[in-house]
């Protein structure tokens, strides 16, 4: 069973999930999620506006119980992106919360106090669990089709690596529409059967108050905690602090270790592959390195001619991964799927890495400057440029990620035109999503281009 702890044979616990001021016991969860399942059973696909709320928890669990694939929609989604996700995914209804503009879909609310004890047969493990939208370097976000089997394999491998058990209390305040917060944090907890606490936002003081044993955060969150001595010291009683979704800077690793007494565990993955590499609860946690392949995962480094690169801790190659946690392709995009996955099942991560003789991995960077990681969110430069060009005051636009102490990279838009910078930031927030807004808009006379007319992004990144 994918959500193994929602098995009627499991012991009840009074506080299986805490979120947004609501506490759900395990029997509340089973009863209310099964009631949600009854409302969607038989549907082809539904959208879930993934706000950090009990409604989202019940909607997600209900879909997985009924075997209905769901599409998590970012809670801060804007108009263009919402239209794209709803249209491309073919979702037939909103389950749980509904955005102000429902894109013509009916709304199926979930009721916190409804109960059903119907027993659904477990769907086949190869069935689709969910479709997560994620950015590429160009174009609109693509739907990543993820099976139940891949999710189960990933959570089980992580449980082994992190000695994650039902006696843990897992705490995070990350969004419930990406791998980190949703698949690992929420589905992981519902599979393992540990207590799950969602703090609403990932703020240091909320992490400090939560009394967890296992904490998840993106590097921006850990950097903010490392900058707040009281909050960091309060995490000394935890068992494991886990960082992922972007590189954890070595000074943040060191400061956290000093203040909390815990060297953080770092792990690496992506929407398409789930988590594939991690340091271990009982193994070496080397600052700047993301660890060893999880059980069942193979990795390799490839050079530009397709040759294998040695694992000598120095030679850099394009990182490829394969194993039981891989996605089943991009929805409606066989072209993009074929570019990403080769016929032997190797996924081209787009990251460049080194591997040492013991199999320890270090992520060196990304192959493309057009895929930006800001606050742990993956954001395509191309989709922001396209959005900006839709504004009447913009003639040309080029977007880059510049180094940022807090966010890792911050989105900076260089624009030729006569729009107000703040108006452009707001425009992107309203069209795409709030977290994709440029943090800085610079109006310039012209963009540097090569003889073919292509914008020279590396040169742009040197402009100050
Ligand atoms: C600001 N705001 C605006 C605005 N400007 N709203 C509308 N229009 C504008 N122009 C408001 C926002 O609504 C928000 O309000 C507030 O400003 C702050 O915005 P923010 O961008 O959310 O805050 P920030 O502090 O910068 O966020 C940092 C962060 C966030 C770390 C909390 O980046 C985050 O949650 N990151 C996690 C990403 C993640 O989970 N990635 C995993 C991907 S999976 P309010 O009221 O809401 O505060 C993956 C695989 C793997 O990568 O390996 O895990
Ligand atoms: P996403 O699709 O949002 O899941 O983003 C996946 C990308 O995040 C990867 O391809 C990496 O570039 C990056 N990433 C995830 N975890 C790490 C990590 N621990 N260190 C460096 N980069 C990471």
From TrEMBL:
<dbReference type="InterPro" id="IPR000873">
    <property type="entry name" value="AMP-dep_synth/lig_dom"/>
</dbReference>
<dbReference type="Pfam" id="PF00501">
    <property type="entry name" value="AMP-binding"/>
</dbReference>
<dbReference type="InterPro" id="IPR045851">
    <property type="entry name" value="AMP-bd_C_sf"/>
</dbReference>
<dbReference type="InterPro" id="IPR042099">
    <property type="entry name" value="ANL_N_sf"/>
</dbReference>
<dbReference type="Pfam" id="PF13193">
    <property type="entry name" value="AMP-binding_C"/>
</dbReference>
<dbReference type="InterPro" id="IPR020845">
    <property type="entry name" value="AMP-binding_CS"/>
</dbReference>
<protein>
    <submittedName>
        <fullName>Acyl-CoA synthetase</fullName>
    </submittedName>
</protein>
<feature type="domain" description="AMP-binding enzyme C-terminal">
    <location>
        <begin position="383"/>
        <end position="454"/>
    </location>
</feature>
<feature type="domain" description="AMP-dependent synthetase/ligase">
    <location>
        <begin position="44"/>
        <end position="331"/>
    </location>
</feature>
<comment type="similarity">
    <text>Belongs to the ATP-dependent AMP-binding enzyme family.</text>
</comment>
<dbReference type="InterPro" id="IPR025110">
    <property type="entry name" value="AMP-bd_C"/>
</dbReference>
